């Protein structure tokens, strides 16, 4: 998730003297380690894992209400990982090699790829929230879930989430404008805040705070937490209730499945909170300017949050394989069975 608060320009806004800063040596070391090594490795893993997720979840045997949302999340993760490689390369290359081609790449990245990147991650967060609600209803109200969450309704909800986020991001499309200026006797593109932004700066600030804090941080955080807690609590109560019937094969199988669901939910929530909590703290600090820090330290915090978000996107495939027997069976049938047939023939 790329930052939307800096300008790729040789004419930036004046910043206040900061109380917290880092040395140039630490800054460039973290720049290389985070953007050139860790982030790109995670992005490549995320691309491979998301492609496998899309292939498997698109299989006709995997079409149910939960998997259709997981498919949409995998598409968002794939888009995020691809655009994140562009962002990582741009951050590393432009900071160390300020050439004409990299300046064009920087402007293109902020105008196009940065917006797609941010859009993909916020849609993914809202889809994870939807999965948490659907799983809570499926576990706590098993006789109601098939009537409330049909496959058609889930697809409509997914489309509504995508469209609503597009509408919510419209004001930010007018935040920057491109202009050309001389730099070392070469005409290069730069970005600056647009006139519409300056004319409505109070609206932009208020809108940014509301959307960043409530729609993208606080609301998903508490919904996911409440739904997951209710789901895990209900699974625990049900397991204790059916303890006396554990000798029955059907009940034993059901308990094993519920235990697997419980473990997967805990892992997913821990990973999601690992992303949402730093994101929430970051939004509070920077949106309300509670702490005055340097631009270098500000960028470092964004890099760390980006890595946490990429970590969440990169290991969804591992979670699906270990936590979903149906996903694992489909994976084996689609790849291992074909390979075995070729060897036998």
UniProtKB/TrEMBL annotation:
Coiled coil: none annotated. One of its GO terms (molecular function) is G protein-coupled receptor activity. Gene3D superfamilies: Rhodopsin 7-helix transmembrane proteins. The chain crosses the membrane at residues 26-56, 68-87, 118-144, 156-174, 213-237, 263-288, 300-323. It is found in: Membrane. Keywords: Membrane, Transmembrane, Transmembrane helix. Its main location: membrane. Pfam families: 7tm_1 (PF00001). Residues 49-320 form the G-protein coupled receptors family 1 profile domain. The keyword Transmembrane helix applies. It comes from the Eukaryota. InterPro entries: GPCR-Ligand_Int, GPCR_Rhodpsn, GPCR_Rhodpsn_7TM. GO terms for cellular component: membrane. This is FMRFamide receptor-like. It comes from Biomphalaria glabrata.
